Amino acid sequence: MSKNRKIKNRSALATLKNWFTDLRAIRKRIKARPEAALTAKGMQSEGIEVWSLKPESDASSWFFAPQPKRRLISLCRTASHTDWGDFPTWTDRRIYSGDYALGKVFASWILPNHVRRSIDELLLFNTSGSVDVTKNWRLKPYSPNWTIYDASMVCKSKPHMTLSLVTDCKGNDETLTTSELAVITCFLQSSISMQINRKNRQSRRYKPSHMICPILIVSVLNCLQARLIEAYFDGGLKIHYSKLYDFNDTHHKDQMDLFVRWMIPRTRGNTAWISPLPALTESCEEADELCSYGTGTWLF
Question: Is pLDDT at 84 greater than 60 in this prediction?
Answer without folding.
Answer: no
